[in-house]
Design brief:
Blueprint (H helix, E strand, L loop, with lengths): L19 H17 L7 H16 L3 H15 L22 E4 L4 E4 H5 L7 E2 L8 H4 L1
């Protein structure tokens, strides 16, 4: 069993207590991180995203952007992200010459020809010059 013998507080994030929305969002970030982290394994990128998001709450007024940033980064660093490099149905590698759909249900890109074989209800066509979903650009 690991025991903590001492610590030094570098930042107490007092500004989070000044606004109830910031406080709730910070609790949400910490709880989500706790659920995603595996005991006795390190995930420095997730912890850095948590720290960055807490600091961002100090300066950014659009809390939804900070929340979106943290959720996308946290899921990505834990291995959950859409397949964006090739078509899931036919295996064609994604480039700018072939239009692709992003299929929301599966989190993947599919070629228009492959999607005609199966009814796609909640997909939308993407501009093929976009290389990644906006979520990962943040």
């Amino acid at each position: 069993m690991l025991q903590l013998s001492s610590f030094e507080c570098k930042e107490n994030f007092y500004f989070l207590t000044e606004d109830i929305d910031k406080t709730f969002l910070a609790y949400y970030f910490v709880e989500l991180s706790e659920k995603l982290l595996v005991e006795n394994q390190t995930n420095h990128r997730l912890l850095q995203a948590l720290l960055d998001s807490l600091y961002a709450l100090k300066d950014i007024e659009k809390y939804e952007l900070v929340k979106l940033y943290f959720e996308c980064k946290a899921l990505r660093f834990c291995g959950y992200q859409p397949q964006v490099s090739k078509c899931l149905k036919c295996g064609i590698i994604r480039d700018n010459s072939i239009p692709f759909y992003f299929q929301v249900e599966d989190g993947v890109f599919i070629v228009i020809i492959a999607s005609r074989k199966r009814k796609v209800t909640t997909s939308f066509i993407l501009n093929t010059t976009i290389q990644h979903t906006n979520c990962w650009i943040l």
